[in-house]
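Bump. Still looking for Stem-specific protein TSJT1 structure tokens.
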Amino acid sequence: MLGVFSSGVVAPPEELVLAGSRSPSPKTTAEALVHRFVRAATPAVSVRVSSDAHFAYSHTNESHLLPRSFAVKDDIFCMFEGILDNLGSLRHQYGLSKTANEVMLVIEAYKALRDRAPFPASHVVGHLSGSFAFVVFDKSTSTLFVASDQYGKVPLYWGITADGYVAFADDAELLKAACGKSLASFPQGCFYSTNLGGLKCYENPKNKVTAIPAPEEEIWGATFKVEGAAVFATTH
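Sorry for the wait, here they are.
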């Protein structure tokens, strides 16, 4: 799965900008990245939400244990990979039918977060149990919300393209070709919100998330770590 967003939606993380500056490497544009994904993952679906946001996804090489799904409701676009172990109880909590799947559940959870302020994001994401990574884009407010499960069971990476778009994908090699060293593994147990202060740990909301420059030989430009946590974000 792939989502790319312009600087009009999300400011490129400074840590990844600096990583790319320290170790300049070839990059491509966001449009070229989407085209490469579509060619490599045929059959694939490409959804341009606006000039600022673009999704692409495919079921090619999908694990039956970690399926991918995509949905749109009320101008909220969501791409989800994985499984929620407590989907049944969450359906009841959000008043959804028994046929609602994970991607629809996440859209409803995001709507609750958006419309019932102050509804803590750490509370919303922390109640999701399972293996997952998702990207939500709210077109009506140009808001981006991204999260990964607490154990990093579903790989998720982010980077900056040559034209300054921030890209999220489950394929590190795909992003490396487009983002060079402006690339990192998205930290497990964390969420990123353009409306709620950037990158935060939902397991330990008071703990700051910092980026540590990676060694030159690493694929990454930086590794994100939750302060006080004993384990680094997995790099798969």
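Helices lie at 14-22, 30-40, 87-93, 102-115, 121-126, 172-179.

Edit: fixed formatting.
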